[in-house]
């Protein structure tokens, strides 16, 4: 907000300019210098703060889902949380990861392009050792993975894509498929080197081993769904309209649901002593006259009046009146 000068400050400023204590050109030069801001075109900030906040919330949910998933799979202590969410050039991301690591490349249909999940070797091998019956020890042997170990690891991370899809379900529906698993980042050309990507770093602990899992999402790939990352759009609850077939199926299921119906012939009160002394052929007098209608309850709610009778040699009641429901507020 622009500061508003008081009348006294305006008079003092005019006086200083007229006496030569201040130079108008110098003030203008200082004002122009304040407007200049250094901008690095190699690190173009293409994600707004609003979108970064939304991405953080989505992947905090992803981290929780991933913690539950790996805990069940590995049957050991697992803790995963979002450490940071940054946007940077793709080339800088590639240079920041180890020369030998686990790179899981997957395609998020219907988006065009690929995402990559980089898993620190210590974390990846702790998971592998645990799956093969070990204690979850970290041993780095990226360069000589056997075919069986590669297969097991690929299947493990393939299943994590289901949790990724679930975490994004409030924004977009993805059909995610694993495309490839690489160990050398130099062989992975996801997008052009200067393309802006957002990197979500997940701090991960598996048993006694700690490391990072990094998700790399290129701007050019998720650009079609960026408007949905706006907080006010994300927080809106969209009312889903049911199809006519769904409504009919729902009505059918409701109509076939069983109901507990009771018919009260009457009531009576007796003492415990009278109850204990009852024997066969004793009679209990009810407070209901034979010509009075019977009360029919649906569940515990009185619903109808009826009269007793028989239908096909079975005891039955005939509905004679409907009890009008009264609102509780009245």
From TrEMBL:
A GO cellular component entry from the record: plasma membrane
Keywords, comma-separated and alphabetical: Bacterial flagellum, Cell membrane, Cell projection, Chemotaxis, Cilium, Flagellar rotation, Flagellum, Membrane
Pfam families: FliM, FliMN_C
Residue stretches in coiled coil: none
Domain Flagellar motor switch protein FliN-like C-terminal: 253-323
Matches recorded under Gene3D superfamilies: CheC-like, SpoA-like
Bilayer topology annotation: Peripheral membrane protein
Superkingdom: Bacteria
Family classification: Belongs to the FliM family.
Name by which UniProt lists this protein: Flagellar motor switch protein FliM
Species of provenance: Texcoconibacillus texcoconensis
Lineage: Bacteria, Bacillati, Bacillota, Bacilli, Bacillales
